[in-house]
Write a structure and sequence with these properties.
This protein is of the alpha+beta class and about 270 residues long. Strand 4 and strand 5 form a beta hairpin. The protein folds into 2 domains: about 70 residues, Orthogonal Bundle (Arc Repressor Mutant, subunit A), CATH 1.10.10.10; about 180 residues, Beta-Lactamase, CATH 3.30.450. Helix 1 crosses helix 3, helix 2 crosses helix 3 and helix 5 runs antiparallel to helix 10. About 45% of the residues lie in helices and about 20% in strands.
């Protein structure tokens, strides 16, 4: 009985997290039907969990649109992360490089950091194009989707990779989302060998991204710089054109935080040196 109860409890937690993670910049307010469509939950289950999230202020009712929206409890937790002195220091250090990469590529450039529940975007310089892709500072995306997720996972131990990937229910965000943990793990050695990750339509349909991790002196993953844009304007062949600029930015940041690279690791400096 205790085992059965613990399994049910974990399932309920995963379902609640899937509801919270279903919100995004293009779905800031959702009806119960929309939540069911994005999470795969049944209407009774979604209603029961949404009611619990409402009572604990993780969700609120949107008076303008009549649906659900993220509540103050989520904001409070996000600010705990953002107020962390290490996070503030990293954001302050990285921001000029995000701005420079945005200027060079014309696309949105963000800093994502690892958290237990997914990768958290803590800073972003949005593209100035009318049609653009953004993550949004304060938003969390799951570990199983997107370039920034794979870029960070690739530099973690297999034990940590499995822990993070098993910490949430793998719900497809798009038709291109890879939901198999084993398939994701198989892709990580190649990402580590290349030093960067590329994704196309995994987190948001029609969006593509390239990301490279930021490591400290002990090879711990501090975060990743993620450059994202519409697939039509930001295909893989264009992304790799700016890979030297992304590598230069990351290596410079790593040197500033005390990570000493070998000469072979240093990329040819192009336009991103500040």
């Amino acid at each position: 009985m205790p085992t059965h109860d613990s399994e049910r409890g974990a399932q309920s937690i995963n379902r609640a997290l899937s509801i919270l993670e279903s919100f995004s910049d293009d779905a800031r307010s959702q009806s119960l039907t929309e939540i069911c469509e994005r999470t795969g939950l049944t209407m009774p289950t979604a209603h029961r969990i949404a009611k619990a999230l409402l009572s604990n202020r993780f969700l609120v009712l949107d008076p303008l649109r009549g649906g659900y929206a993220l509540g103050p409890a989520v904001v409070r937790l996000a600010f705990i992360v953002l107020r962390n002195s290490d996070t503030r220091s990293l954001v302050g250090l990285v921001l000029p490089y995000l701005e420079k990469l945005r200027s060079l590529t014309g696309e949105s450039v963000g800093l994502h950091i690892p958290t237990e529940g997914g990768r958290l975007c803590v800073a972003e310089e949005e593209s100035r194009h009318m049609m653009r892709m953004v993550t949004g500072a304060g938003n969390i995306l799951p570990w199983y989707a997107g370039a920034a997720s794979r870029a960070m996972l690739a530099y973690m131990s297999e034990r940590e990779q499995r822990h993070l990937l098993s910490n949430t229910e793998h719900i497809p965000l798009t038709s291109a989302t890879v939901v198999s943990t084993e398939d994701l793990l198989k892709a990580l050695p190649s990402v580590r060998q290349k030093g960067y990750a590329i994704s196309q339509g995994e987190s948001v349909a029609g969006a593509s991204a390239i990301a490279k991790p930021i490591l400290d002196a002990d090879d711990n993953v501090l975060g990743a710089i993620n450059i994202t844009g519409p697939e039509a304007r930001w295909p893989p062949e264009r992304m790799v054109q700016f890979l030297p600029d992304l590598e230069t930015a990351v290596r410079t940041i790593e040197m500033l935080i005390g990570r000493a690279g070998t000469a072979a690791e240093q990329p040819v400096a192009r336009n991103c040196a500040l």
